[in-house]
Design a protein that fits this description.
Blueprint lengths: L1 H5 L3 E9 L7 H19 L3 E8 L4 H9 L4 H18 L6 E4 L3 H16 L3 E11 L4 E3 L17 E10 L5 H10 L4 E2 L1 H12 L5 E2 L1 E2 L15 E2 L1 H6 L1 H4 L9 H6 L4 E5 L3 H14 L8 E4 L2 E2 L16 H8 L1 H11 L6 E2 L2 H31 L14 H19 L3 H22 L1 H6 L3 H22 L4 H10 L9 H5 L30
Parallel strand pairs: 1-2, 1-11, 2-3, 7-12, 11-12, 13-14
Antiparallel strand pairs: 4-5, 4-6, 6-8, 9-10
The structure holds 5'-O-[(L-methionyl)-sulphamoyl]adenosine.
Length: about 525
Amino acid sequence: MVENLMQRETFYITTPIYYPSGEPHIGHAYCTVAADVVARYKRLKGFDVMFLTGTDEHGQKIETVAKENNLTPKAYVDLVSLRFKKLWRALGITNDRFIRTTNDFHKKAVQRIFTKLYDKGDIYKSIYKGWYCTPCESFWTESQLVSSKCPDCKRDVHWSEEEAYFFKLSKYQDDILSLYEKRPDFIQPQSRMNEMKAFIGGGLQDICVSRTSFSWGVSVPFDKKHVVYVWLDALTNYITALGYASGNDADFRKFWPADAHFVGKEIVRFHCVIWPAILIALDLPLPKRIYGHGWWLADDSSKMSKSKGNVVDPFGLCLRYGVDAVRYFLLREVPFGSDGVFSHEAALKRFNSDLANDLGNLVSRSLAMVQKYFSGKLSEQQEFLESDCKLKNFAGELCLKFEKYMDDFQFSLALTEVWKLVSLCNRYIEETAPWTLAKDKKKARLSAVLYNVCESLRIVSILISVFMPKSAAQILSCLDLEDEPIKWEDAKTWGLLPKNSNIMEGGVLFPRIFPKDNLGAD
Ligand code: MSP
């Protein structure tokens, strides 16, 4: 009983599992960084978090790419999934699990799920005749094609005619529509919900869930010439990673249903139509929210693609700008639901203006003044004025707004709010002119002014710690707070910085980057 009372609220967040069909790029980094920011934020608020990512390693596309590389599919995915893991380490990603669909436990669970749906009558055998897009691993009917190409990626499709198992998606059409009615927040942003309603309005057909024309996949346990369709295999990762259908489902009971699935806009359809139908068929609860984010486009506004050679390499970005700056840029530059065009000019501008100029300068000038006027230890005699409340009140409201934006996954607005406090501090320094107070020997007033700025920096650091963990830790350590675990509640209370802290100058947080610096890095 006591243990129950003490159980923390859980929060389960996922990214899509990525196809290891090539090197990870900025589009993959984007979603994983966003999910990481949420996971860190929820942990900071005391939640018991499960953050899952991984790689989607089966299917025709992977089989083909492996062949092109003269490797077996398994040898190939072993190599590329390591690159994803390496990127997550480089970007400071704090995922709790990394699932690979070639994991044995996952394959066995997929087979059990397939059998369960078959036994229930929701999967049946028939003949598939239609078009298939290998890059998207999607089936299309003649009427869905656009100029004879895949309506999603606009690439060639090929005719496929094979014996296949089908999932009775049509049976769940009304359940899904009534789910959308009952839970208007199920799909976000709202525009994606409208797209899905329109999509279902056209009528749902049963979908093909097995293939016989290649072999790289999970075999159907009772009909070995079939492999399970890669999307059925992939979607179930969100539950198999928690031990569903494995005999040890303690984590599944603890964390399911997911609080948020983050997915790119082109795969919202799989997550908001097929995935709920599978879960309903399995008698399982549905995820709470599915957020369809936008794409990063190349600087000619086209979708980045390996064949066009215009994908942006996140390893190179980290080398050039630093990890925290990359994390900041990705989430600050573009609202999470919208598309954005990537350019080094925009990245450089953000870096030099928001990071080097606004925040970096504020930190270095404030800490330098505490050093210069007080040798690092503010005088405890401090003269506060009524006008100082502006900073304190702003900081209080900032926490509330930040919380709301974070809960709505409006990362760019959350960061914009924090930067308002940064600007306010810069203005406050100009207005109070500490250098004049020092000249006039107004020690008590000078100490209060610098205290207010350092205290604001403490709050800013807590808030940005989920976006820019290294920079936040660096500032907090200069404020003599490195031994304190960062706590969300501490951001909400003004005045927690001890008056007699040993404040130190740090190095330059964000050294200005000039356009021609490190141009060869990516
Ligand atoms: N394997 C499937 C997902 C299965 S989830 C059960 C898949 N993989 S993917 O590697 O092609 O894409 C993974 C995610 O990366 C998608 O959400 C996709 O939107 C995202 N991105 C790929 N390129 C992107 C951009 N250029 N910009 C932003 N995200 C994009 O689909």
